[in-house]
Amino acid sequence: MQGRFVLFCVLFLFIGIVLTVAFIVxxxxxxxxxxxxxxxxxLFLTWYLLLSGGAEGSGVYWTYSISMLMVLxxxxxxxxxxxxxxxxxxxxxxxxxxTFVYNYSHPEAIRIITSSFALYVLILTxxxxxxxxxxxxxxxxxxxxxxxxxxxxxxxxxxxxxxxALKEKGIQQSAIMVMLDIDCFKSVNDNYGHDFGxxxxxxxxxxxxxxxxxxxxxARWGGEEFLLVFYDISISATESxxxxxxxxxxxxxxxxxDAAISVTFSAGVAIFNEISAFEPVVKLADERLYQAxxxxxxxxxxxxxxxxxxxxxxx
Length: 315
Ligand SMILES: Nc1nc2c(ncn2[C@@H]2O[C@H](COP(=O)(O)OP(=O)(O)OP(=O)(O)O)[C@@H](O)[C@H]2O)c(=O)[nH]1
Fold this sequence. Notes:
alpha+beta, Alpha-Beta Plaits, two-stranded antiparallel sheet, 11 helices, elongated, binds guanosine-5'-triphosphate, GGDEF_dom, transmembrane helix
């Protein structure tokens, strides 16, 4: 304010603009237009400080921050266009014979331009390095997440993966859980070998993937056990779907040397909703699965025992 009323007004106006933009950006979904607007506004402020000299020629010191601001607000590509424009126009104005420009000496004007350019190149380089490192870290973290949540043999979610998926989805409405186990899988392995057993597991996983769509979940719960979770589908529709998959799987003929082999599975179905804890429902599905095994295998058991689940959940 000490005799610099115009400078004061300009700086005060820009504070107002920056605060307004910051307020709007907090509410905006797409922040890019506002960032570009802010970058352009700050470019004009920088020009003003450079060309007017600010307070006793100290305006130029503040212009160096434009290199960082352009990269932050406009990104390396658009920021480079803005900086290119800034450097070219500034060079013409401070090196030319313009009376409205602060009186920089020729060597000083050259140093302002070259040091601004050098600073921008350094900041741009560090930004490219940062972007590269971020991409590598994101990819590594994504790979770790995938490995932690996926069964390597079948490509389905593993036990951890389905727990994470259930937590993310939440149980907003009633959902149905199916526990499914291949029958006499030990003898399949013993008679035809572990590789053959693996092939059966992969074939069943593919059949499940083909039949369980949308937001419903399919996981390899462990060994030869699979866990499915269905949303937005009734228990009777789930039961019919599982029976259909069961029949399709039983009709697949696997070949080993000259032998033609068919394999079956058994399943237990249980329903849960927002008041049910996860473990009691898994336990109920598991109990029904073993009922199915006890009934001679190649069966699906899906009684509606909602009351029992609710009681178990409360315990
Ligand atoms: N090939 C293969 N076998 C596996 C894998 N994981 C577990 N198994 C085998 O699955 C078999 C499971 O056997 P059991 O738990 O006795 O069950 P089962 O023979 O299917 O008998 P029921 O469940 O009563 O029908 C064991 O022999 C395990 O070695 C796997 O990734 N690959």
